[in-house]
Amino acid sequence: MLQLGKYTITGGILAPMAGYTDVAFRTLCRECGAGLTVTEMVSVRGLAHGSQKTEQLMRLSEVERPSCIQLFGNDPADFAAAAKTIDCDIIDINMGCPMPKIVKNGDGAALLNNPERAGQIVRAIKDVTDKPVTVKTRLGYYIEEDQAAELIDSVAKAGAAAVTVHGRYAKQLYNGISDGGAVLEIAKSSPIPIIANGDIYELFPAAPSIAALMIGRQALFNPHVFDDKDPDPFGVARRHIELLTQYFDERYTINQTRKFFVHYFRRVNGSKALRNAVNVADKVSDVMFALDECERLN
Ligand SMILES: Cc1cc2nc3c(=O)[nH]c(=O)nc-3n(C[C@H](O)[C@H](O)[C@H](O)COP(=O)(O)O)c2cc1C
């Protein structure tokens, strides 16, 4: 169980994943038992300019209670300005993204090399809002350089409520296997709750020192990873499409079904024909027709 300010989080947490965890997929995962969902990362500099894309990223649904928006940047003043304007219950800060276009600006995982700045960012947000602030990071920046503990100390002193640790170093990107043992060691001596992340395929009972588990890619294959119910891919796909059409236009909906069907229907008879049909579909009704056809084969 994880306590974030006045919010008690039970169940697994859906990891933020750019391009995937939009409001439709997050809602689907909440319906499948996720205890918390997080938006993909939103630039605090972008927020200052108020683009339509940023607004879309921050759209929240009714079932996202409490809701959580993830921010990235490196200037405490930008974070304070963002925290004053965004409308959500919990603010998460990305201090783990390893992508060159992010770290070259001093954002994301680059903050592992600057724990003092990381603390200043959390402090700047806490100075302007009572909302719980969480941080998401990795074991360290360079391989075998364990910097997470220092970062955690700094953000804890500044008032962070919890930290998610993905058991890889930034320089590893997504290579190798996430080191759950290293995350556990960090959790044992952390002054604030630790959420474990990385290559978790089911919600097994976490070690007592781990406050919660966060699942990313496995949820793309099976949103029912959170409630362990029968993962009927046709039912999941239909509900996902329903939610997509509720929030987005037809073009976006079809694009997302192309991305997700690769995962949902990996092990289903006729999945290749289904994917081919979806790839040339230009209406949602074409996708639904292809789904019906495929289900008949199963
Ligand atoms: C496509 C993709 C996009 C991601 N986008 C973000 C992001 O916006 N913010 C973030 O903190 N992590 C992001 N991540 C990292 C995930 O949140 C998570 O830490 C990582 O995938 C490891 O967990 P998993 O093994 O359960 O997938 C992304 C990962 C993937 C695969």
In brief:
This protein is of the alpha/beta class and 298 residues long. 43% of the residues lie in helices and 16% in strands. The strands form 2 sheets. It has a 9-stranded parallel beta sheet with strand order 4-3-11-10-9-8-7-6-5. The chain has a two-stranded antiparallel sheet with strand order 1-2.
Characterization of the model:
The chain has 298 residues and is of the alpha/beta class. The protein folds into 2 domains: 2-225, TIM Barrel (Alpha-Beta Barrel), CATH 3.20.20; 233-296, Orthogonal Bundle (Non-ribosomal Peptide Synthetase Peptidyl Carrier Protein, Chain A). 43% of the residues lie in helices and 16% in strands. The chain has helices at residues 23-31, 44-49, 52-57, 76-85, 100-103, 115-128, 148-157, 180-189, 217-221, 233-247, 250-264, 271-280, 284-296, and strands at residues 2-4, 7-9, 13-14, 36-37, 42-43, 68-72, 90-95, 133-140, 162-169, 194-197, 210-215. The protein has a 9-stranded parallel sheet. Strands 1-2 form a two-stranded antiparallel ribbon. A hairpin with a 2-residue loop joins β1 (2-4) and β2 (7-9). The chain is globular and about 55 Å long. The chain starts with a strand and ends with a helix. Flavin mononucleotide binds at residues 15-20, 40-41, 70, 94, 96-97, 136, 166, 178, 197-200, 215-218.
Structural key phrases:
binds flavin mononucleotide, TIM Barrel, 298 residues, alpha/beta, Non-ribosomal Peptide Synthetase Peptidyl Carrier Protein, Chain A
Number of separate domains: 2
- What CATH first level of the largest domain would be assigned? Alpha Beta
| Helix count, DSSP H or I runs of 4 or more residues | 13
CATH superfamily of the largest domain: Aldolase class I
Under the CATH scheme, the architecture of the largest domain is Alpha-Beta Barrel
3D shape: globular
The major β-sheet equals: 9 strands, parallel
Helix content: 40-55%
- The residue-averaged pLDDT reads 97
The largest sheet has its strands arranged as: 4-3-11-10-9-8-7-6-5
Task: Give the total of beta strands.
Answer: 11
Q: How much strand?
A: 15-25%
**Distance N terminus to C terminus?**
39 Å
CATH topology group of the largest domain? TIM Barrel
Q: Give helix and strand order, one letter per element, not per position.
A: EEEHEEHHEHEHHEHEHEEHHHHH
Low-confidence stretches: none
What's the alpha carbon Rg, rounded to whole Å?
Answer: 19 Å
Main structural class? alpha/beta
Bound molecules: flavin mononucleotide
